[in-house]
Amino acid sequence: MAQILISAQNLNVAYEQHVALAIPDLSLSGKIVAVLGHNGAGKSTFIKTVLGLLSPRSGTLEINSISDGKKLALLAQEHMAFCPENGSVFADISVESYIKMWCRFKHGDPNYYRGLGARYIEMLSIAPLLKKLGRTLSKGQRRRVQTFVGFLLDPKLFLFDEPFDGLDVQRTRELAEIISLESDLRAFILSSHRMDVVERLADYLVILQNGCVAAHGTVTQVSAALCYKSVLISVGQDSASIYETLRIQFQSCVVNRIGDQVTVSGADCDATAIIELLKKELPTATPRIEAIQPSLVDAMTYHLRVAEGG
User: 274 and 210, same structural domain?
Assistant: First the structure.
């Protein structure tokens, strides 16, 4: 079983005079690590620094893997694969030629993908794309091809920038399942806005805000750190009225309604105040109220709202 160890000490990464990443101290381990945050939070900079595409102005960032009790310092060119946000397939050659090129570079055999790499063809539904030119592929298809090539490189660490962007529900579920299965063989770092998928998939989260680490830990730890608390109100036919009442009264919180349930999440979420409000505003309603663990979706929504001063 593969895990990565990430350690940052006094890390400072900048574009000329603009500091894009400032991490005094960070130490974590996981199989599937998700890096989350608002646009411009530093997610891509973090990934580029891991890949060695950006050099720190100061400090260090060490990436190691642990497999079968053995520790190995990971080098980008030898041990890592990367799938960028838009995928990367040469426009004027076929997908098959592009794959053969990588197989020749990495394994010295242009037909490697037909042998040991063949299982990924079926996994990612690559066969129908082999004869297509790169320029004819959709964003989702380019991503599948680049993901396929990444697996052929047999990396110890696979990095994805927005892996689920451009994928429909079925393809998103399939890729999430593939990453989950492959995490027994290699570790992953994901940067994504798909909180619903990340919540099910990742075992460790790093939340960036303006280039700094706002929180890190398991999904449960991070959700609690960002959102503090959440209350679930289970109701019947009055759910729409209860939702509107709570949305108006608890404007600093995140209020959601799904079917006959309403959730209120945030620092100002108070179960007692909710009960008293509903008794006053909707005396005929008989809701059931319980404290629950905040979801990652609600926690990140609340965190981004607070960060933006909303």
Answer: no
